[in-house]
Target: Homing endonuclease LAGLIDADG domain-containing protein
Amino acid sequence: MTDGDGTFSIVYQNGKWSLAYKIALSRYNLRALFYIKKQLGVGSVTKDNTKGQFFIRDRKKLESVIFPIFDKYPLLTSKQFNYLKLKQAFYVLEDSSLTKDEKDKKLFALKTQSIPDNYISPSWNKTQLPLKSISDLTGIMTKPWLVGFIEAEGSFYLVSKDSTRIVHGFGITQKLDSVVLEGIRLILHISTAVNFKSKYNHYILDTTNSRAVENIIQYFRNTMKGMKSVEYRIWARSYGKYKGDYLKLSETRNILRKLKTKLLEISDFS
Model:
């Protein structure tokens, strides 16, 4: 999930430095954040009218809980670059041999360091690019990683093909990291190519192909923990029960839209 909606921040305010690890999700997916907090045993969850945030600012907790996770399971997106920056900043702050001015100089340099063009996470050094088959992803893109990433970034939707036909679709976009979408395409057996949309400045993987939709339904069954799992179950169940039924699928599409925008009571569909 961190590769989807996680951030690593180096903040300078009122003459002091702070570090933060954060995951921000739509408010309707709060339960995923509380699940993360429970599993890690540290951190806090806050919410406003539109979003929820899980965060850790305690440097000792970052060192004892977060660093071991991402050292063992490196991030697959360009967020690995930001994680390594945060970790470097941590060691600068912990270095008692440095003066405050020396720390400030090093930390300002880190904070302003930009990600290189065409950066690819070192995690992909384990395989040969471009990706050609699922075997190229062995030991890199795991199922738990993909489930978390889709909880943060994936979209299960229904779309009108014409005035009498609604079909199931699945989509995901990334501003960077097209290699990640290519890996997902291979794992989920999606025949559609990853495309770059210059109008929106992002890469997109999207399909309404029935065989691909069936693969996706099977892959994510009984996996997700947050509200995305409810969205998925409504979407997947309607494929099995209502495929080809325009009126029923139209009703289901309205339920999915309201679920996201109005925080409907969804117990009847879980």
In short: The longest helix spans residues 246-262. The beta strands are 6-13, 16-26, 44-47, 51-56, 155-162, 165-174, 195-197, 202-207. Confidence is low (pLDDT under 50) at residues 264-270.
